[in-house]
């Protein structure tokens, strides 16, 4: 089974509108972490937001917020007031803790295009 | 503050050749990771290290080797390059979270 599932290969959003990028995860661990990264066409990986499994409040970082629904095992990224510079690939990732260290799993990504 | 530095940025190898991808970080992070990203896909973990002298396999370790003799450096070795290893390779480091990524090495095996 896939550890991280992103079901939206591509998304379009009008500039200044909000958009939600979906992410579901699969783990039997109690303690884990969830991340979102942005990858522009230049290729670098840019950290956006983090949610710990024990965090009771949804994480927010500026225009980014993470809609964490633990029972549904979903961790959707919400981008408010989209900007042209938000056009990029977005990856959801999960950290599982092991005795030998942390294992990370990434989804296949969602390509977001912001339309002027 | 350089962060995570990967060299080289681009490389073309012939089948059967070997090479080492270099990764160094100046943040004194204990954790370091190597990923590969195939076209249109997410990142897959190859190897990781929790500190100097300690390494472990990730999801896709076959065909690769790593070493961690110092906190700063975490080189990835390809012994017998195969076309299936054509990919973009990312190194990352972290202390807790998040991971800090290098700019990647684009490797083509022909």
Tell me about this structure.
The complex is a heterodimer of chains A (116) and B (110). With 116 residues, chain A is an all-beta fold. Chain A is 0% helix and 55% strand. Chain A contains no helices and 12 strands. In chain A, the strands form 3 sheets. In chain A, strands 2, 5, 6, 10, 11 and 12 form a 6-stranded mixed β-sheet that branches. Chain A has a 4-stranded antiparallel β-sheet with strand order 3-9-8-7, with no helix packed on it. In chain A, strands 1-4 form a two-stranded antiparallel ribbon. In chain A, a hairpin with a 2-residue loop joins strand 10 (88-98) and strand 11. In chain A, 31% of the residues are buried. The model of chain A has no long low-confidence stretch (mean pLDDT 94). Chain B is built from no helices and 11 strands. In chain B, the strands form 2 sheets. In chain B, strands 2, 4, 5, 6, 9, 10 and 11 form a 7-stranded mixed β-sheet that branches. In chain B, a hairpin with a 2-residue loop joins strand 5 and strand 6. Chain B is an all-beta fold and 110 residues long. Chain B is globular, with a radius of gyration of 13 Å. Chain B has strands at 4-7, 10-13, 19-25, 31-37, 43-51, 54-57, 64-66, 76-78, 87-94, 100-101, 105-109. Chains A and B meet through strand 10 and strand 11 of A and strand 4, strand 5, strand 9 and strand 10 of B.
């Amino acid at each position: 089974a896939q550890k991280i599932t992103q079901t939206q290969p591509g998304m379009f959003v009008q500039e200044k509108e909000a958009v939600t990028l979906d992410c579901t995860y699969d783990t039997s661990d109690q303690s884990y972490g969830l991340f979102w990264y942005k990858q522009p066409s230049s290729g670098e990986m840019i950290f956006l937001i983090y949610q710990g499994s024990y965090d009771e409040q949804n994480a927010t970082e500026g225009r980014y917020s993470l809609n964490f629904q633990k029972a549904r095992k979903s961790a959707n990224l919400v981008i408010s007031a989209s900007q042209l510079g938000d056009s990029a690939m977005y990856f959801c990732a999960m950290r599982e803790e092991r005795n030998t260290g942390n294992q990370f799993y990434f989804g296949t990504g969602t390509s977001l295009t912001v339309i002027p | 503050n350089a962060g995570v530095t990967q060299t080289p940025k681009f490389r073309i190898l012939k089948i059967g050749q070997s090479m080492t991808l270099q990764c160094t970080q100046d943040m004194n992070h204990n954790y370091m990771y190597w990923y590969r990203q195939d076209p249109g896909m997410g990142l897959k973990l190859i190897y990781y290290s929790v500190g100097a002298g300690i390494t472990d396999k990730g999801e896709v370790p076959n065909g690769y080797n790593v070493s961690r003799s110092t906190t700063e450096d975490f080189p990835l070795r390809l012994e017998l390059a195969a076309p299936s290893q054509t990919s973009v390779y990312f190194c990352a480091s972290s202390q807790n979270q998040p991971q800090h990524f290098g700019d990647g090495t684009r490797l083509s095996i022909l």
